[in-house]
């Protein structure tokens, strides 16, 4: 049947209600070259034929036995409990919980998610999640301009390039000026017109920034400037100081490492937290806990809505229209499954394994570790021939590390290597063998 199952009579009735004579008149604002009378689609398939076709298409996918690719999307251990609970129909088929009386279970789950994120980050308040880390960072930038009344934000070098692109896109629409600066010249750029400084730690290159030093320097130079930190892999909070202990105003992160498969790059989970005094300016949703006026029963509700759907448009701080409820549930179950010591164990393995690979690579002729600061589970290494390394990894069923030149063309033959708890001893040894062979082949060609 047609995609829109309306017969001519129904279409005519709808056009009559809105006072339009024909579909052509309805679409008059759309130029003719953008209109399609009929899509050139193949005919439908029976269910068995469709399943066979989908299986055939899926065989084009390549699933590697182990991955050394990170750069914002990570392979981490996911307890079986996560998929079991998120696959239950009462969660999996639920939509946004507008009707509190019919959504107490999901509202409580989101409330518990906010609580566990707030405790993990030691920030005062966490919202009910956002689309992903990049849009959470963009919303944080806009939020800072609303709070301060200023129209310039500064991005410290080291932020994921795709996150920077999203921030610039959001800010362009709001006439917000976006500047970039290195840590060395940051003080020179700070002035009374700057709403916030945004930085990433661990940054895109793997460096763990000295957050306390950055905050101290910024507060001394401009006490009214807000400080926003972003992370792409918050599993590092198992061992690193939480942002709430470093006087960060807003902390955002990509929650994908918390129980979500990398899949094809999504879906993500935007973690958004802030200090208590910014509670009423936080975009998206907040779930609150309340109590009966004449009773002892507790309940959960949507509260303090800052989006235009719930308050006057001119007072809205954001037009964000949904939350990632199922993804935030996965993050909640993930963190609860790991318990008090599990995240620390995962973070420790990430550091130990990544530094082991870093040490092994540094001993192979032609390889040079670029990072000068401490790193978490990613680091930069200059390779004698990155294409050879990539091909040899694929031959060994290993997903190769990122060619950093795909973002920074001037950084040729430099790889961003990621190692997590999912990389076994065998896969690490195989990777080192590939790196060694790539080095030997390069030496022979010379």
SSE arrangement:
Layout: H1 8-18, H2 23-26, H3 47-58, E1 66-67, H4 80-86, H5 89-92, H6 104-121, E2 125-126, H7 133-148, E3 152-156, H8 161-173, E4 177-181, H9 186-189, E5 194-200, H10 211-221, E6 226-231, E7 250-254, E8 270-274, E9 286-291, E10 298-303, H11 325-362, E11 368-369, E12 378-382, H12 386-395, E13 398-399, E14 402-403, E15 414-418, H13 425-445
Parallel strand pairs: 1-13, 3-4, 3-5, 5-6, 6-7
Antiparallel strand pairs: 2-8, 7-8, 9-10, 11-12, 12-15, 14-15
Helix pairs in contact: 4-11, 6-11, 7-8, 12-13
What report would you give on this structure?
By secondary structure, the protein is of the alpha/beta class. The protein folds into 2 domains: 114 residues, Aspartate Aminotransferase, domain 1 (Alpha-Beta Complex); 256 residues, Type I PLP-dependent aspartate aminotransferase-like (Major domain) (Aspartate Aminotransferase, domain 2, 3-Layer(aba) Sandwich). The protein contains 13 helices and 15 strands. It has a 7-stranded mixed β-sheet, sandwiched between helices. The chain has a 4-stranded antiparallel β-sheet with strand order 11-12-15-14, covered by helices on one side. α6 runs parallel beside α11, α7 packs across α8 and α12 crosses α13. The longest helix has 38 residues. The protein is globular, with a radius of gyration of 25 Å.
